[in-house]
Amino acid sequence: MPQVAVCQVADCAYNQDSTCHALAITVGDGTHARCDTFFTFPSKGGDAAATGRVGACKVSGCLHNVGLECQAPGITVAALQDTADCLTYTMR
Length: 92
Ligand code: SF4
Hints:
Largest sheet: 3 strands, mixed
Radius of gyration: 12 Å
Bound molecules: iron/sulfur cluster
Order of helices and strands: EEEEEEEEE
Shape: globular
Distance between the termini: 21 Å
Structural class: mainly beta
Organism: Streptomyces triculaminicus
Pfam families: DUF1540 (PF07561)
Protein name: DUF1540 domain-containing protein
């Protein structure tokens, strides 16, 4: 599974020091490359010893998407307005 190389969404419960610690995130709501795993919580979660990976991606229109799985070498996630978006998304 591709690594979440950088995640700049500091507010996310899984983010510490610009690193995602969710073991497997899900990206996309079908058309928008949004991180579905993003949420806020009073304490941090995930595995602090691990770096997050992309478990599934529903953005079939992305160049890196093969069979609803991400094939990019790694992705970058950042906050855009109120959402956490995959910046590695590339239109086919
Ligand atoms: S790079 Fe494309 S296929 Fe990979 S997680 Fe981002 S939107 Fe999904």
